[in-house]
Structure formats: C-alpha cells, structure tokens
Amino acid sequence: MTKIIAAQRWNAGRTLGRLRFQMLGLRTAGTKKEEALTGIGNAGTRAPSAQIESAAAWTRLGIALALGTIGSIGMWSFVVALPAVQTEFGVARGEASLPFTLTMIGFALGGVVMGRVFDRFGIVPPALVGACMLGAGYVSSGYAGNIWVFALAQGMIGFGSSATFGPVMTDISHWFARRRGIAVAIASCGNYLAGTVWPPLIQHFIASDGWRATQIGVGVLCFASMVPLALMLRARAPVHDVTVASTAKVAAHGSLGLSSNALMALLCVAGISCCVAMSMPQVHIVAYCGDLGYGPARGAEMLAMMMGFGIVSRLIAGLIADRIGGLASLLIGSVLQGVALFLYLWFDGLTSLYVISALFGLFQGGLVPMYAIIVREYFAPREAGTRLGIVLMATLLGMALGGWMSGVIFDFTGSYRAAFLNGLLWNLVNVLIVLWLLQRSERRPAYA
Predict the structure, then answer these.
(1) Do residues 288 and 389 both lie within one domain?
(2) Range of 165's domain?
(3) Is 0.85 topped by the overall pTM?
C-alpha cells in the first residue's frame, strides 16, 4: 500500500513538472512572438505601457517638434540662398536649381534609409546621423568652389533633414494611442514651422554676412542643437498591448482584404497623385502671380499664407483622425484640396487668389501626416519607420513630378489653366484610391 501511494505521488510530481515545462515553453514562445511582431527585442529597455500619453510622452513631443523645426531648415534654406549662389558661380537659373533637386533626392532616399535605421535602433541613431550630415553638408557647401560641389553638399543636407521628419513622426506614434492623430500632426509641424521661421532669418544673415558664412553658421547651429535634443530622446518606446500587436501579419488583409505589399503600393500611388496635385500651387504660385501682373512678391506672400494655414490644417487633421481614423481624414482633405484647385480655375483676382491660397493651405496641409497615421494603423509597429519612409519618398516624387509637369504644360499651352486641370485629374486618382480603401475597411485596424 505504501509503495502504491509513493508511486502515485511520483507520477503526480512528474505530471506537474511537465505542465510547468510546457507553460515555460509557451511563455518563451509568446515572448519571441511578441518580439518578432512588435519589434520589442529587449523588454527591459522599453518604457512601461503606463508611459503612453503620459507627461513624459508630451514632453517628448515638444522635444521632437523642436528637433523637426531645426532639422527641416535644410528643406528651405537654399530657396533663399539661390539668387546669391547663382550670382557668385555665374550659372544659369536651371543649373543653379540643381542643388535643390539633389536636396529633394537626398531627402527622399534618406527617408527610407533613416526609417530602416529607426526600426532597428530607435530614434537616437538616425537623429545623430542627421545632425552630423546637416553640419557637414552646410559647412562643405560654405566652402564649395563650384556649383557641382555645392549641389553634392545640398544632397547631404537633404539626407540629413530626412531624419527629422518621417522617423520623428513614427517615433511619436509609438508614444500615443487615443491621441495619436494630433500627436503625429504636431510632430509633423516642425517641417512647416521651419519654412515659416528660418527663411527670413537666413535672408537677414545672407544680406549682412554673405551666403557662405551663413551656410557655415547654420551647419554649426544644427550640429550643436540637434545632438543634445536627440540624446534627450533615448528612452525607448512604450510596450503596447501584445494581444493587439499579435495580429500583425493579418491586420491589413483582415481589415481591407489586401496584402501588406498591395496596400503599400496603393498608398504610394495615392501619395504620388496627391502631391502632383499639391505641387501646382506651391511650386508655381509665385510665377503665376508674376504672369498675371501682380508681381512675385504677392506670390511669395500667398505661399507664406499656404504654409501658415498648413500648420493649422495639420493640427485640425490630427484631431479629426483621432475620431474617424487616418483613411477617412485623408479622404476629406483630398476632396477639399480638389475644391481649392477647382477654384483656381475660375478666380484670378488678387483678393481671390489670397483667399483661395489660404483655403488651399488649410485643405492640403494635413494630407501628408495622414499617411503616417495610416501606416501605424495598418502595418506592424516594427515596420513603421521603413514603410513610412517609402510612402514619403513617393510623395516627394509626386512633388517633383508635379512641379516639372506643370512647367511643361505651361510652356506648351502658354497658360496655367491646363496645369490646374492636370492637378485636378491627379487629385481625382488619389481620391478614388482612398475612397476604395475606405469602402473595403470592415473594422478598425489591429495595430497600436
């Protein structure tokens, strides 16, 4: 009898041991699955989920906005320096515009590379690389002996600036959930704030100290200010609900009936179409006002109005996205952008152009940040940086294509009317894609 009881106890202990081993294996598998799907490779270095939308998150947002405002100087400084650079190097306007083209190319390629780095290492490494490239690019451009060296330096500047746009928006998206829309919108405002703040300051220093000294000074400023700001963002993103993130591979397919790559391709086409339409007024409004006899100064004022109202647009779009989602918000903004383009066709009086330009800025400013929201809603968090970088590269391609295409249409027809019509058609493509995606959406996205 004693032997039977002992044997039963031994069997019970062995069964309990097996259960414990199986539970440990399930925990290990669950942890590995969490790391694979959410990108949380070292949970000990991550902030707890309580940090989401905490005071620390809002403080981080303020730092990110400052970083974006400084880093995005590379997108606007050459526009101010162009006349002085052209005069000193003695080149034609087309050749003198090459540095801006390389700036855009650098920004587009940098967005993808920096996004990939962000997905693996967080925001600090790309921000530090961006600070170094901005510093080196601006100092090199200040010592450039010809337009080609200057253009290559501008390519470095564009690459460096990319670290403070897409990666910054992606980083902030990990620190917010319920208020993610407005948070990402605020982070994206650094780009427009830079376009509002820096051009008059750069113009002042070019007039007083020359463009070379100004370029070198901007490089020193970028490096000295961006490095400490980047180091203040060392805290890793909070851990989101693993149950929510565990559906990573099926979210886009389950909610839209599309594979991740198919959705990605559609977003890129929509981004190109959206920004071809957007570029028409932004790139050509100054020339358009000159052709109408109002003078380029009036066009520059309208462009500034677009930027100012664009900031307001981004904040409003962020608030709307928190309520109805990124796709619906993008659809509203895209339709309204088409309305503004349509108004340009029928009204060309000075007062009318001021009003329409303000409306255009108010309608289109929030479009690009919505792509960041959509990427976070429909793709795995560990892929967000790379995915957003690719979409932003598509939007920049659209801006470049639209600016060039509008000029060619003007040269062919002698009028901007056909160019506005072309913008409307491209905008229609964007609207139809977003509307189709929205109709396929059956439930809320699975990512957080």
Answers:
(1) yes
(2) 50-239
(3) no
